[in-house]
Amino acid sequence: MYNTKYVLPGLLIFLALFTSPFWAGKVFGTASYERPKLALPADQKECIEPVEYMRAEHMQILDTWRDQALREGKRTYVASNGKVWNVSLQNTCMKCHTNKAEFCDKCHTSNSVTPYCWDCHVEPKGNQ
Amino acid sequence: MKRSRRQFLKVASLSVLGLSTHLATGGIVNAAEQGAQYLPNENGLKAGRWAMVIDTRAFETPEDFDVCVKACHKAHNVPNIPNNQNIKWLWTDTYEHVFPEQGNNHMSESLENRDFFVLCNHCENPPCVRVCPTKATYKKPDGIVAMDYHRCIGCRFCMAGCPYGARSFNFSDPRKHLDMGEVNPEFPTRMLGVVEKCNFCVERLAQGLMPACVEAAEGKIVFGDLNDPESEVRKVLAENFTIRRKPNVGTQPGVYYII
Questions:
Q1: How far apart are the C-alpha atoms of B204 and B222, rounded to whole Å?
Q2: Residue B41: which residues within 8 A CB-CB, separation 6 or more?
Q3: Cα A116–chain centre separation
Q4: What's the sign of the alpha-carbon dihedral B159, B164, B166, B171?
Q5: To 5 degrees, how large is the angle CA A88–CA A89–CA A91?
Q6: Which residues in B have their CB inside 8 Å of a CB on A?
Q7: Is B210 left (phi over 0), alpha (psi -120 to 50) or beta?
Q8: Which of A49, A75, A91 is the closest to B32 by Cβ?
Q9: Per-10-residue mean pLDDT, chain B, length 259
Q10: CA distance A75 to chain B (A)
Q11: Residue A73: which of B28, B140, B191 has the nearest Cβ?
Q12: Dihedral sign (CA A113, A117, A118, A119)
């Protein structure tokens, strides 16, 4: 190989920089991700579906809810455990999750997700 | 170790099969989704074709109109913007503006001076639905022309398509003109850059309630199912002379006016 003494160190520097996000945190001890502590509803024990499912799929549920309510006119949700809910972000979800800042925003902020739900939907009053 | 091409393909295809069956059968995601069901509200009002009949003779003073407009705008968080960018769901205009092709040279004074309610006509053949490129505006099976603000891209084709000027565009953030402490928490506001209009109170019908303006009008506006011969709208239509707006554009409005 030509110019080995330049190419190899160059490659090493590139690799070091390229992989830095993966090890920099461990070496310098700066980055450590902690799962955000969410404020859960005080008076409710369970959500419309199991926690793991809600954590992973709440955006899909909201998307389906929107289409079912607006387009199909189906505004009653029978959950997998048989419980009946009104299909509405403002009137069902936010009636329990009254603290948007401590529930929605915490996860969304730490995951750099900026949904525009609140450009239209009204935040619950119990939000402080 | 030497592997032949044939061996590699065998292992590769088996692994792909395994992966895909795992994805197809899914984990918790599918389990919960399959168990859940969506149904129409039990106590919701249903109709084959919703229609409204406005008794224009009964609306005399500005207060008569105001009660209904306020009820509508309060229920739907419609902002009051005092310039030509105002948002209109339910408003009033004169005979010659509301019925431009149906005027005569020497009309009765009462018709000349009377104001008329104007709102989205929820047409049988809505041009706004045809021109909407994103299907944000759509016609429901019960005749209501509804809007999905999530999908509106603000192109305003529907405003160009609507022969009745029943649509408004949010040129600025409507929340600037709303008292956020006073808004109806049950209904969303709209955002900057979407078109909006009257929705025949589809969210109230789903709860078994009549539209806000009909409730506030106390009998001066009749609302019901056009397909049901026993309904009140059909009785009122059979007993009174009614006209609709711009009959020659062929949109077949769902709002009738008793003259």
A1: 15
A2: A75, A76, B206, B207, B208
A3: 13
A4: positive
A5: 65
A6: 28-29, 31-42, 44, 77, 138, 140, 142, 146, 148-150, 180, 183-192, 202, 206
A7: beta
A8: A49
A9: 83 87 60 75 95 96 96 96 94 95 90 94 97 97 96 97 96 94 94 96 96 96 96 97 96 96
A10: 5
A11: B140
A12: positive
Residue ranges of A 24-53 with Cβ closer than 8 A to chain B? 49-50, 52-53
- The CA–CA distances, whole Å, from B4 to A54, B7, B9, B47 equal 47, 5, 9, 68
Q: How many residues does chain A have?
A: 128
Q: Give the tokens for residue B42.
A: 């039990």
Cβ pair A122:B183 closer than 8 A: yes
Which residues of A fall within a CB distance of 8 Å from B39? 74, 76, 78
Mind telling me how many Å the CA of A53 is from chain B's nearest CA?
6
| Residue of A119, A123, A125, A127 to mutate, interface with B, max B Cβ within 10 Å | A119
Q: Do A52 and B28 touch (CB under 8 A)?
A: yes
Neighbours of B19 (CB within 10 A): 10
Reported as half-sphere exposure (CB side, CA atoms, 13 A), residue B69 has a value of 19
Q: Which amino acid is at B30?
A: N
Torsion of CA B120, B123, B129, B131, to 10 degrees: -90
> ipTM score of the complex?
0.82
Cβ neighbours, 10 Å, residue B21: 9
Which residues of chain B are within 8 Å of residue A77 when distances are taken between CB atoms? 36-38
Beta strands in B112-258 (DSSP E): 115-119, 137-139, 145-147, 168-169, 195-196, 221-225, 242-243, 255-258
What pLDDT digit, counting tens, does each position of A50-96 carry?
Answer: 999 999 999 999 999 999 999 999 999 999 999 999 999 999 999 99
Does the reported pTM lie above 0.90? no
**Residue B218: CB atoms within 10 Å:** 11
